[in-house]
């Protein structure tokens, strides 16, 4: 059922929250001034008022950064990469400072890839809150919602840091933070591809694509409750995207080109509908994983002199 249809059915019931029912349909041509929210929250709503346009801008920026990184890599003049590799420890040199550096790197990379795709969810909440404020009802800033969402991905960044330490200790990741094993890379690609076909992945993706029913069923007006809503939405997003995020271990943690590509794919998944793109990405990842494994075996295949 579409968002508008859900709204129509829900608002026909006597128990429907007024703020939700009075929210106008969210279209690309609708105005999003949100004048009844605090100034900072109103500016946030205005900034993400056209989620598809924002997603396109993010895609263009991420893609441009990826091609820039590719050009610098071929030219051998990437100062950022050289700096990071100098700071990131080897398997025998991890300390508190090293963990902090890697954690900050993962946090920046994760938020850059995931926050743009949260725009439709934040905008939905901001529109509902603006309607409630217009009626004189208490509201909570969308920033509280965004904070809960961000907390989930900061938790992922912390877990990824620990995982990187373990993988580096196992000699599966070299000092340049690139996979040292074709079999390891292939396994990650195949697992990520297979997850694209799972029912759990699609259930989480549907929640990300259509946040209005979630807010309708769980609407609260207390800061703690709104923060929990952000956490729940973050967990849905995590359930949708965690496998593709792990692909960074296979292709190089600092590979900006892959970072841009995965960011594009995850954003397109959330602003689209249906499973066609999700399945196509799954097939591509599995094929890539098989290619990694074949290459790994071929590199060690015995060659007999004639």
Q: Which SSEs are present, and which pair or pack?
A:
Blueprint lengths: L2 H9 L6 H4 L17 H9 L3 H25 L3 H9 L8 H19 L4 H16 L7 H28 L12 H14 L3 H11 L1 H8 L4 H29 L4 H16 L4 H24 L7
Sequence of secondary-structure elements: HHHHHHHHHHHHHH
Q: Which structural class do the helices and strands define?
A: mainly alpha
**What distance separates the N and C termini?**
67 Å
Oligomeric nature of the chains: single chain
Specify the overall morphology. elongated
Number of helices in the DSSP assignment: 14
Low-pLDDT stretches are: 1-10, 12-16, 22-31
Count the strands?
0
Mean of pLDDT = 76
Q: Report the sheet with the most strands, covering strand number, pairing sense and barrel closure.
A: none
Helix content: over 70%
Overall number of structural domains: 1
Q: Which percent band covers the strand fraction?
A: under 5%
Please state the CA-atom Rg, rounded to the nearest Å: 22 Å
How would you sum up this structure, described in words?
With 306 residues, the chain is an all-alpha fold. It is 72% helix and 0% strand. It has one domain. Helix 1 packs parallel to helix 11 and helix 9 crosses helix 12. The longest helix has 29 residues. The protein is elongated, with a radius of gyration of 22 Å. The N terminus is likely disordered.
Characteristic terms for this protein:
14 helices
């Amino acid at each position: 059922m579409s968002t508008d249809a859900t709204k129509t059915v829900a608002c026909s019931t006597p128990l429907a929250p007024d703020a939700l029912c009075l929210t106008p349909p969210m279209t690309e041509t609708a105005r999003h001034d949100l004048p009844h929210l605090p100034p900072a929250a109103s500016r946030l709503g205005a900034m993400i008022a056209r989620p598809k346009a924002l997603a396109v801008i993010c895609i263009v920026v991420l893609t441009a950064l990826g091609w820039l990184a590719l050009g610098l890599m071929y030219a051998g003049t990437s100062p950022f990469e050289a700096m990071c590799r100098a700071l990131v420890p080897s398997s025998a040199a991890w300390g508190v400072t090293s963990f902090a550096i890697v954690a900050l790197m993962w946090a920046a990379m994760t938020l850059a890839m995931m926050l743009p795709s949260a725009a439709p969810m934040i905008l939905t909440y901001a529109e509902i809150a603006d309607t409630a404020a217009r009626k004189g009802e208490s509201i909570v800033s969308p920033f509280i919602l965004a904070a809960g969402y961000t907390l989930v991905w900061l938790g992922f960044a912390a877990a990824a840091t620990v995982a990187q330490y373990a993988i580096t200790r196992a000699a599966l990741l070299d000092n340049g933070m690139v996979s040292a094993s074709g079999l390891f890379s292939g396994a990650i690609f195949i697992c990520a591809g297979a997850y694209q076909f799972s029912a759990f992945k699609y259930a989480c993706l549907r929640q990300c694509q259509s946040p209005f029913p979630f807010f309708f069923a769980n609407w609260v007006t207390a800061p703690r409750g709104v923060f929990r809503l952000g956490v729940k939405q973050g967990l849905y997003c995590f359930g949708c995207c965690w496998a593709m995020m792990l692909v960074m271990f296979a292709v190089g943690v600092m590979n900006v080109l892959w970072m841009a590509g995965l960011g594009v794919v995850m954003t397109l998944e959330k602003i689209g509908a249906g499973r066609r793109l999700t399945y196509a990405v799954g097939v591509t990842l599995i094929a890539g994983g098989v290619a990694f494994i074949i290459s790994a075996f071929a590199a060690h295949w015995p060659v007999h002199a004639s």
